[in-house]
Every structure is written in structure tokens, then in C-alpha cells.
Design goal:
The complex is a heterodimer of chains A (356) and B (298). Chain A has a single domain (9-355), classed as ABC transporter involved in vitamin B12 uptake, BtuC (Orthogonal Bundle). Chain A is built from 15 helices and four strands. Chain A has helices at residues 15-33, 40-65, 74-89, 94-116, 121-141, 161-188, 190-200, 202-207, 212-238, 243-246, 250-262, 267-284, 289-305, 309-318, 347-355, and strands spanning 9-11, 151-152, 240-241, 328-330. In chain A, the strands form two sheets. Chain A has a two-stranded antiparallel ribbon. Chain A has a two-stranded antiparallel ribbon with strand order 2-3. In chain A, 49% of the residues are buried. Chain B is 73% helix and 4% strand. Chain B contains eleven helices and four strands, in the order ααααβββααααβααα. Chain B has helices spanning 2-29, 36-53, 58-85, 91-111, 140-162, 164-174, 176-181, 186-211, 219-233, 238-258, 262-282; strands at 116-117, 129-132, 136-139, 213-214. The two termini of chain B are 37 Å apart. Classes of the chains: A mainly alpha (356), B mainly alpha (298).
Chain lengths: 356, 298
């Protein structure tokens, strides 16, 4: 810090971020009206995109912010669909069942977190995978599901195809927007400071009084809830429920791919990653096995050579913030100074974050 | 019932075989290799290919496959894990997971969805058995598998405690920086450790192929078995892996008795119960549970 008379400016929003906020509002409005113009196929694809965004954002919340890499998140995806089937079978309105299911998945994840959060790193990662495998086997035992044969969300057929398609589209859009808003609010609030502190250094965070376990639990339950909703929505779009498809580890592979490519630990990165994944799937999804090999190879390459992902690299290079969740310090006389709150907080930013 | 218990114990030998490489790499490099199971399946396919195309029987095929696995292990450490471990503890999980996806799908691309087995290439060994007193029949292959596990674990133990190279690997796992000060090349030690781990993976893959069938996506369950056996048994020695493997296999056998689909459920449930008891008793994370003798056993 040079001896310039003016003190450093601490800012949160920037001109870019204010424009971005308006753009976000416009995009959401546009997306809400989109089913009027889009073909049936395009509406379905957009619904899938929204679900991908939810998956990416939730895995990022857990791994990027909570430092908890899980390879078993498909358990919540599968349970989201399974509970929706169960609730609908019990007579609940199928659309209502989708959200009730998400809530139940969130509730189930709470006791699970008491146990699983005591594992660290790789142990947590594979431990969650074991949980997913076990849950899959137990769901198969349910007579309603009929093992791997599966079942369907038949009660959704009371709506005609057109209404069903648009309704699910809107539900997915609302879910995505709401979950992103919750995450954004969480990251900007006082919990956000704690979350970023944990992300950067867990032990140091604990030493200054951050409630590490409580904060991680919050992220774990939020991620379970969000992925549960995503699973229920996926069920609503495809109607059929085959345990093998929903409890497949490929869902977690997709999440990892999206977040790794987009930028782990950045709010915008997960969204960007989901869009990239969506485009790749649209263009190359027909390539079958080579498409999957490509996804895996890209994930390996990003983890080795671009671990911050696309967005993390853009942020670093250009100091760009569209949806700022942290603060940044601009030193006078050096306007391009470290805009690094989102990625690697300097001592200055950390101090201010604690006050937030 | 006695019969089933004996079969369970012998199956535990297989789990010990597949678990010891995972546990070994974790104790030396602090990395859990998520491509572990996929690499074992890769080795099984390599043996199958040698046997069906070049008519090289699997036991001779191992002479080719095991050195190849060692080279793969060395390269894995040098080109992937070393680099990704510099990015923190979480990155290697993502790197190796991506690698597993690549391997699984390449195998699918190459060999298709059909399940394969090495059993047709080992003659009568796949079904021959010995009669033990009390009218108990034990498969010769199962006994060979168990004996291999015991010899491998014993050999590793001797290697780590008695040889210069083994001691340098242990030193690196304790504290790479200090080991460096006394002239141990940590990079070399890690690469050799990875090569050794992959040789054990190659052996495990061979027995996987001989005792059962495999398909391109069989790697994931193998990884879970390896992890579970390592955690259940990892109370501080290599031999713990063997005990872990036996406990896992017995729990699966018991599960299968209770319910037709209970084989896997029994194993997973046993893993969680052991984990739960350990965690509540120790208050520690799992880190202390996945240790090898390199840390405390000698």
C-alpha cells in the first residue's frame, strides 16, 4: 500500500455488476415468456438447462464454498424423484409432490450430515458414494418401485401434454431462480463471510470463531434440498422412474464437470458451466461413448491446467464481477488492484468481510 | 453355515487384494484414487484380451500386465497426481474421478457392453475344489486368491520395513520435507509407491476376472469395496486390510442369507456401522483409521 493520501475504496457493487443485475432481471423475464415462442422440443431442452443450473449451483455450493467434494450427490437426485413418486402415490397432487419431495430430501439430509460431515476430503467423497449405493439398493426393495423395472408418475397424466410441458418449464425456472437467489443471499450475508473464510482456510476460519460445522451443515442441507428438487423436476419431465437412471453416478459426474469447467467457488462460474455443458450435450450428446470420454478428459484437463475454471480465470484476468457476493478493495492510484475477494482474499478484504 | 463362513473369509482375500493398493496410496500420498476400481477392470480386460486374442493364459499374461500397470502407476503419479495435488487436497479427487470416467468409457468403446470373464481361460481351476474335513468344499481359486493376498500383504510389510526403498517411502509419507533433508527423493518415492499400488491393482483385476464376470462399468463397485475394506480394517496395519476384507465379505454373506438382494446391502451397512462406532468412539476423523504400518506398525 503506497503512501497516497486517499484511503482505499471498499466496494461491493460495481458499474458492471449493476448492469448485470438489470440484465439478470431481463433474462428471467424473457425466459418466463419464452414458452409462448419456443417449440415444444425447445421448451423441454430449456427445462433441462434449468435443472442443470440447479445441479451445478448446488454442487458448487457444497464443494466450491463448503470445501466438501461429494461423489454421491446422486443420492439426493434419486431420493427427490423417489419421494415424489411416493407422495403422488399417496394421493398428493403431483406438482405439489415435487416440492414436498425436495423438502423431505432436505430433512433427510440433516441427520445424514451429523454423521457424514465428520469425514474429510476423499473419505467424505467416497463415503457419500457408499450412501448413494446403499440408498439405491434400499429404494429397489420398495414394492412400488418394482426393483429396476421402475414405475411412473402416472398421476401427472391428468394434465394434457402442452399444459404439462409449460407448467414444468415454469416450475423449473422458478426453482432455479429461487435456489440461486437463496444461495446468492446466503453468500452476501453474514453467513457468506463465514462460508468464504471456510473455503479459503478452514482451520484459520475456526480459529477466528467461524462456526465451521454449522455453516457446512447449512450448505449440505441446502445442496440436498436443491438437488432433491432437481431430481423431482427431472422425474416430472421424463415421467418414468427407474432407480438405476436416477441413482447413477453420472449425475455427480455432470455436476463436477459443470463446476470444474465453469469455475469452482464462484457464483457465476456454476451457471456458466451449466450453459457450457448444455451446449456440449446439445451438439455432441449424440456421439455416445466418445462424448462421455470427452467430458471426463475435459474434467481432468481443467483440474490440472485451469483449476479455477473459465469464470475464475476471467475474473482473475479482467477483475470482472457480474454478481458480486464479496467485497473488493480498490487502492487509489492502482485501479486494477487486486480484485480478489471472490477467489483469494487478500488480508484487507478478509478484514472487511468479517465485519459484514 | 460353516461352509458359507469359510467362503466369506476366502472372498475377503479378494477385497484385501483390491483394498491394499488404495490404502497404500492414501497412506503415502494422502490421495484417494477414484480411478482405482476402473484401473483394476482395465487390467482384467488387458488379461482377457491377451488370452482371447493372443492365447496367452492369464497367469502368464500377468507377466506382461503387471509391468504395464507399474508403468501406468508411475506415469499416473508423475503426470496427473503430482500436479493436481499441488492444487490442494480436493483437486486429486476430481482429477481421478475424471480419469475413471475416461477409462470406463474407453473400455466400453473398445470392448462393448458384454460381460467378460477370465474363467474360460484358466481351465478347471475356475470350478475345481478341495474337500476339507466335515464335507466342506473350498474352491481352489478362492484359496489361491486368499494365499496371494496374504503373501502380498506380508511382502509389502517386509518391503516397507526391511528395504532401503521401503524405508524411504515410509519417510516420505511421514514428512516429505524432512525426508528430503536427509536425502530422500520424495518425487521418486511417490512414483515408486504409485507403481507398486498399481501392481496390486493389476493382481486384484486378474482375480476379479477369474472369480467373476466384469463389464466396462464394473470399476465403481470395486472402488467402493476397496474403500470399505480399507476403512473397516484400517486400524493401523496392512493386516488390517485383510481383516477389513474378511469382515466386509462376511457381512455380505450374512446379508445374502437375510434377503436375496441383501449381499451388497449387508456390506454397505457393515461399513456404515463400523464407521459410526469408530467416529463416535474416537471423535477423530477417518484420517487416523486409514493408516498403514508405515506410520505406526513398526
Amino acid at each position: 500500500m503506497s503512501a497516497v493520501s486517499t484511503s482505499p475504496v471498499i466496494e461491493r457493487g460495481t458499474a458492471t455488476s449493476r448492469i448485470a443485475a438489470i440484465a439478470v432481471a431481463l433474462i428471467i423475464a424473457l425466459l418466463a415468456a419464452a414458452p409462448q415462442f419456443l417449440s415444444a422440443g425447445a421448451v423441454d431442452r430449456m427445462t433441462a438447462l434449468f435443472i442443470y443450473v440447479i445441479l451445478a449451483a448446488m454442487w458448487n455450493a457444497l464443494a466450491g464454498f463448503g470445501g466438501l467434494v461429494s461423489v454421491g450427490q446422486q443420492v439426493f437426485f434419486g431420493l427427490g424423484a423417489y419421494f415424489a413418486i411416493r407422495l403422488a402415490d399417496a394421493g398428493l397432487n403431483p406438482l405439489l409432490a415435487l416440492f414436498a419431495s425436495g423438502l423431505i430430501v432436505g430433512a433427510v439430509s440433516w441427520p445424514l450430515s451429523l454423521f457424514m460431515l465428520r469425514l474429510r476430503n476423499g473419505e467424505f467423497a467416497i463415503g457419500m458414494w457408499v450412501i448413494a449405493a446403499l440408498t439405491h439398493l434400499l429404494v429397489n426393495l420398495d414394492r412400488l418401485v418394482q426393483g429396476e423395472t421402475g414405475t411412473s408418475l402416472i398421476s401427472l397424466n391428468v394434465y394434457d401434454a402442452g399444459t404439462r410441458r409449460t407448467t414444468i418449464y415454469w416450475l423449473a425456472l422458478v426453482s432455479m431462480t429461487a435456489l440461486l437467489a437463496i444461495l446468492f443471499g446466503l453468500l452476501r450475508g453474514s453467513t457468506g463471510a463465514a462460508i468464504r473464510a471456510i473455503r479459503d482456510n478452514e482451520d484459520a476460519a475456526a480459529s477466528v470463531g467461524v462456526r465451521v460445522t454449522g455453516t457446512k451443515r447449512l450448505l449440505f442441507v441446502l445442496a440436498a434440498f436443491g438437488i432433491g428438487i432437481a431430481g423431482a423436476l427431472w422425474l416430472a419431465t421424463s415421467i418414468t422412474f427407474q432407480p438405476k437412471t436416477y441413482f447413477n453416478v453420472q449425475w455427480t459426474a455432470y455436476m463436477i464437470f459443470m463446476v470444474l469447467v465453469g469455475g469452482i467457488g464462484t457464483f457465476e462460474g456454476a451457471i456458466l458451466g451449466a450453459v457450457v455443458f448444455f451446449l456440449i450435450e446439445t451438439w455432441f450428446g449424440g456421439a455416445g461413448v466418445w462424448y462421455l470420454v470427452g467430458l471426463g478428459a475435459i474434467a481432468v484437463l481443467f483440474s490440472l491446467f485451469l483449476p479455477r475454471g473459465l469464470w475464475g480465470t476471467i475474473e482473475e484476468r479482467f477483475g470482472l464481477r457480474l454478481l458480486p457476493v464479496g467485497y473488493r478493495v480498490r487502492l487509489p492510484g492502482n485501479p486494477a488492484a487486486p480484485a480478489d475477494d471472490g477467489t483469494a482474499p487478500s488480508p484487507q478484504t478478509t478484514q472487511h468481510q468479517e465485519k459484514a | 453355515m460353516t461352509n458359507q463362513i469359510i467362503q466369506g473369509i476366502l472372498l475377503g482375500g479378494y477385497y484385501a487384494l483390491i483394498a491394499c493398493g488404495l490404502s497404500f496410496m492414501f497412506s503415502v500420498m494422502r490421495i484417494i484414487n477414484l480411478a482405482h476400481g476402473s484401473l483394476a477392470v482395465f487390467a482384467a480386460y488387458a488379461l482377457w484380451w491377451l488370452a482371447s486374442r493372443l492365447h496367452i493364459p492369464p497367469f502368464f499374461g500377468l507377466l506382461i500386465v503387471l509391468p504395464v500397470m507399474a508403468v501406468i502407476g508411475w506415469a499416473l503419479q508423475r503426470f496427473l497426481l503430482e500436479r493436481s495435488a499441488r492444487g490442494g487436497a480436493l483437486l486429486p479427487i476430481l482429477t481421478t474421478f475424471g480419469l475413471a470416467i475416461v477409462i470406463d468409457n474407453m473400455l466400453f468403446e473398445q470392448f462393448g457392453a458384454d460381460t467378460r470373464s477370465l474363467a474360460p481361460f484358466i481351465g478347471s481351476l475356475s470350478y475345481d475344489s478341495w474337500e476339507w474335513p466335515g464335507g466342506i468344499y473350498v474352491g481352489k481359486l478362492a484359496v489361491i486368491m486368499f494365499a496371494t493376498a496374504v503373501i502380498l500383504l506380508g511382502g509389502l510389510q517386509l518391503f516397507l520395513t526391511r528395504t532401503r526403498l521401503g524405508r524411504s517411502i515410509r519417510a516420505t509419507s511421514e514428512d516429505p520435507d524432512t525426508a528430503g533433508l536427509v536425502g530422500v527423493d520424495a518425487r521418486r518415492a511417490n512414483a515408486i509407491a504409485a507403481a507398486i499400488a498399481m501392481v496390486t491393482v493389476g493382481l486384484a483385476g486378474a482375480f476379479l476376472g477369474m472369480r467373476a464376470t466384469f463389464d466396462p462399468y464394473a470399476g465403481a463397485p470395486q472402488l467402493l469395496f476397496a474403500f470399505e475394506a480399507a476403512v473397516i480394517g484400517g486400524a493401523g496395519s496392512l493386516w488390517g486390510t485383510l481383516i477389513g476384507g474378511i469382515v466386509l465379505a462376511l457381512a455380505q454373506t450374512l446379508g445374502a442369507q437375510v434377503h436375496p438382494q441383501g449381499f451388497l446391502i449387508g456390506g454397505h451397512a457393515m461399513f456404515l456401522v463400523v464407521l459410526f462406532v469408530r467416529l463416535s468412539a474416537s471423535g477423530l476423523g477417518l484420517r487416523g483409521l486409514l493408516r498403514l504400518p508405515s506410520r505406526s506398525g513398526s
